[in-house]
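WARN  no MSA supplied for this record, continuing single-sequence
INFO  ligand: arginine
INFO  echoing inputs
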Amino acid sequence: MKKAIIALCTLAVLGSLAQARTWDQIKASGTIKIATEGAFPPFNYFEGKKLTGFEVDLGTAIGKQLGLKVEWVTQPFDNLLIGLNQDRYDFVIASHGITPERQKAVDFSNPHYCTGGAIVSKVGGPKTVADLKGKTVAVQVGTTYLENVQKVAGVGSVKTFPKDTDAQAALMAGRVDVWVGDKFSALDVVKAQGGKLQLGSLLFQERIAMAVKKGNSSLLKELNSSLATELSNGTYAKLSNQYFKMDIRCK
Ligand code: ARG
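INFO  complex generated
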């Protein structure tokens, strides 16, 4: 037991001492390792065994534009930034909103899209922030949805789920009154449920960005410049139209 604890502590210390790969090291290796969740459609998800989605295509385009081979890693959402700080991969693209709290732990790129957290319920259910009074709300754990729902006074209870799709399922099963999730995901879910669900108001707005390990400024610079290229050369517009039928870049 004691040995196991010492081993764990050593791992934690070694992890925190390890250096993230700089841009020069990544370039020399020829491969960039990108992490995402793989359970957040239409941004990052699995189609059978194939990892796909707007952020997966965008991340792959960025890696290729940088002249690298791309290797994808998937992790539960709540582990992504922890693994980043343990140097398990070079950057994360998983719909993280830029928040002051997260900025203490990691460095964010320029935003790759702008969105908001939306209130979704069954037809006839809560639609506005005021309607949330006394209601049960489902959100994915570790998200800005949780943080923002907790700020609303009078909410009955908040239930957290490991995956966003589990929170949606709880709404469909009638185990909660409301699901708060991304407005673009919500548009798809509402459409897929064919008249059973309704999209209410936005609880908050956010800017979504890629994350690198804190202090990895050489990689951050390359990611920002590659993103700028994709935004201006038509690649971003094409992918955005493919997944959303509109351009979701920050205006
Ligand atoms: N945008 C929200 C946040 O910043 C949710 C992100 C969830 N991402 C995911 N891959 N499940 O917390």
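Residues 37, 40, 44, 77, 94-97, 140, 143-144, 164, 182, 206, 208 surround arginine (CB under 6 Å).
INFO  checksum written, moving to next record
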